[in-house]
Amino acid sequence: MNNLLEKIIMVLLFPIRKGLIFVRHQYGRMRLARLISCGLKVGKNVYIENGVNFDPIYPYLIEIGDNCRIASGVTILAHDATIFRQLGVNRIAPVKILAGSFIGENALILPGATIGPNAMIAAGAMVNRDIGDGKIAAGNPARPYANYSDMIKKYREIATPENIFFKQDIENGIISHDDIVSYLNDNPIAFVQGVPRQDPCYINEDMDNIRKASIESYENLIRSKLDK
User: Fold this and answer.
1) Are 17 and 90 in the same domain?
2) What is the number of other CB atoms lying within 10 angstroms of the CB of residue 4?
3) Cα 218 to Cα 227: distance, rounded to the nearest angstrom
4) Which residue among 109, 197, 207, 213 is least enclosed by CB atoms within 10 Å?
């Protein structure tokens, strides 16, 4: 009886929860648009999740290149107030996240840092220095420990047609959540190919090209398997 009551409550609350998520997302998009109008530079096909915190005072000192992805909870600062009480001034410096870079959840990017291009910052890292082209960095403070290209090579080897699910099949109900959970109970890793029908986290996007690039990358992956 309790389980049935819980299910009924969840069904009744679902529209409310969905509405709150929509409102939260719309507020985040409006806030981001205001920062862009104040000088925040954002390239093409940039993916910015809700909950990213850009410096609200100096957004014009932040630059994000094409095809970057920034996860939820990331904070990017272009000013530092630690010396204000002693010296009466704040330090300001530009932040650049160059093309193709990925910033993981809850990372902190401090003034003066340049990241990339094609670099990856691990979740929770604190970046107070430049992270070079193609590097993966983690820690507090973040330090490079590997090359992004090596990680791509590793997963290129691991990914096979057998462990890849298609986003379209998931959205159409052909593959259920239980199917994915069941597979991962017996296997250590799986992948999902494709772009969702709707993904409002993209900025300055060309969804046709994004989908085309995703398909081309997948086809190259499968072709590399067949060539062996």
Assistant:
1) no
2) 8
3) 14
4) 197
Catalytically annotated residue among 25, 79, 91, 129: 79
User: 2 falls in which pLDDT band (50, 70, 90)?
Assistant: low
Q: What is the pTM of this model?
A: 0.85
> Can 177 be counted among the known catalytic residues?
no
- Does one domain contain both 106 and 175? no
Range of the domain at 1: 1-37
Query: Does a structural domain hold residue 153?
Result: no
Segment 34-60, tens digit of pLDDT: 999 999 999 999 999 989 999 999 999
The beta-strand segments (E) located in 17-158 are 41-42, 46-48, 53-54, 62-64, 69-70, 75-76, 79-80, 91-92, 95-97, 102-103, 108-109, 114-115, 120-121, 126-127, 135-139, 142-147
Query: Does 45 share its domain with 135?
Result: yes
Q: Are residues 45 and 133 in the same domain?
A: yes
**Does 152 reside within a domain?**
no
